[in-house]
């Protein structure tokens, strides 16, 4: 009897490569530590890149144009908005921020995961446009006092800007339950490991790799046929 060719999932890597990239969204009130966690993830995780936002906010001394943000004047920001070049945009703490559309669409079509450090307004817009691609994580500080002291220790913003950010925090924190996951950033290493675990598990959700289903079915069919032949 001629044996049917065995179906096989060639490798876990190949199965993984066939999937669409996912959009990992990190949000938090200012000072909870989402940018710090984002940096650790980007350092350690292959196949994960940052969505570099555009903003009209002035550059901080520690920031590099084109690496942390693309810094634009309000006129150029408005042009991008009018030309539909932005996937989402929002006014946050009195400045404009937005996600350029092109790099995100290119990454997820090519199976590369993309990390967003964006606020709740932007997250809602991504939910509206591409909910099944989005995995959202809300980062919480262990306490409001610690969040405030982190903002002062960071020493990047003037006191009145910190006061404005604390005010905005109230509205932002009310939306924590709209996120897929909540991670408390008390111990940085543990918080980072939790977000990493979320990313790794989400990559394996079966609906992200639609081609894996027929391969699994083929293996089951092969085994069934082999057992039937032996009977
Ligand atoms: N677990 C932690 N323990 C102590 N300090 C932390 C922890 N996580 C982050 N920090 C520090 O807190 C400060 C704020 O962190 P970060 O800039 O990542 O906050 P953020 O949520 O991105 O704020 P923003 O929205 O204002 O950019 C930084 O100085 C960072 O080094
Ligand atoms: N909706 C969007 N929000 C964004 C984007 N880029 C950053 N942000 C959020 O703005 C605040 C302030 O950021 P900061 O760098 O000035 O501290 C923070 O909540 C960010 O997550 C964006 O493209 N869209």
UniProtKB/TrEMBL annotation:
InterPro entries reported for this sequence: GK/Ca_channel_bsu, Guanylate_kin-like_dom, Guanylate_kinase, Guanylate_kinase_CS, P-loop_NTPase
Q: What catalytic activity does the UniProt entry give for this protein?
A: GMP + ATP = GDP + ADP
Q: Where in the cell is it found?
A: Cytoplasm
CDD domains, sorted: GMPK
Q: What class of enzyme is it?
A: transferase
- What residue range is the signal peptide? none
Q: Name one GO cellular component term.
A: cytosol
Guanylate kinase-like domain mapped to chain residues: 21-200
The GO terms describing molecular function are: ATP binding; GMP kinase activity
Instruction: Locate the transmembrane regions by residue number.
Output: none
Pfam families in UniProt: Guanylate_kin
Per UniProt, ATP binds at 28-35
Q: Which domain of life is it from?
A: Bacteria
Q: Which family, according to UniProt? A: Belongs to the guanylate kinase family.
Write the protein's name. Guanylate kinase
In its UniProt entry, the species of origin is given as: Roseibium album
UniProt gene name? gmk
